[in-house]
Specification:
With 222 residues, the chain is mainly β. 11% of the residues lie in helices and 33% in strands. The mean pLDDT is 97.
């Protein structure tokens, strides 16, 4: 999906992740968007911006919407999902925490690696019973299952489509398990030279190297 119409992501959706961040489980689904320009592919560089030294990883199961839909009941949500894949919700934490909307800190270039395969629901089986693991270099940081989700995939689609339609190609990131860099003591963020590898049962592995970026030249200015 090189040009998705939208990337929507739910926050605080794994019980253990909520606990590691010192939060209470949410009563309602907690959504934010990542700019679609942040998309990257398997093997692409995750570029660390010069303006942040708190860039974090988040291994997540993602749904890709297959057809325009609205007011979808949970028991029919599977009908509008083209397939499932992996997304790394890379987050510049210092920028993220400046505002409650999170959008800017979640949307730096290359901060939504996605892939490697799009697996249909009949191939994958129950999306609520998959192992999900994330490594930084050779260190296992996240080791969980999607059964730890607070809101399941069908409930997410029903909730979102109550408010607005979803377009084909929309990527929906379903939340991250415990073990993010910000949740460690002390926190451990990404550095140039790292590699982030995320594996989800039935889908495969998404791997991306991390590189330190410089201050970019202005684009589109005369």
């Amino acid at each position: 999906m090189p040009d998705p119409p939208a990337i929507l992501a739910i926050g605080m959706n794994y019980r253990a992740h909520v606990a590691e961040m010192g939060r209470e489980p949410p009563e309602w689904q907690y959504w934010f968007n990542k700019q679609r320009t942040s998309i990257a592919g398997p093997g692409d560089d995750i570029v660390l911006p010069a303006v942040s030294d708190m860039v974090d990883y988040e291994g997540e199961l993602a749904m890709v919407i297959g057809r325009r839909c609205q007011h979808v009941p949970a028991d029919r949500a599977h009908e509008v999902v083209a397939g499932y894949t992996i997304v790394n919700d890379v987050s510049a934490r210092d920028w993220q925490w400046r505002t409650p909307t999170f959008t800017v800190g979640k949307s730096f270039d290359t901060h939504a690696p996605c892939g490697p395969e799009l697996v249909t629901g009949d191939e994958l089986g129950d999306p609520g019973a998959l192992t999900i693991r994330t490594w930084v270099n050779d260190e296992l940081r996240q080791d969980s299952t999607t059964a730890d989700m607070i809101f399941g995939c069908a409930a997410m689609i029903a909730y979102l489509t109550t408010a607005f339609p979803l377009e084909p190609g929309t990527v929906i990131a379903t939340g991250t398990p415990a073990g993010v860099g910000a949740g460690l003591d002390p926190p451990r963020f990404l550095s140039g030279g790292d590699t982030v590898r995320i594996a989800i049962e039935g889908i495969g592995e998404l791997s991306n190297p991390v590189v330190q970026g410089g201050r970019p030249e202005p684009v589109g200015l005369d």
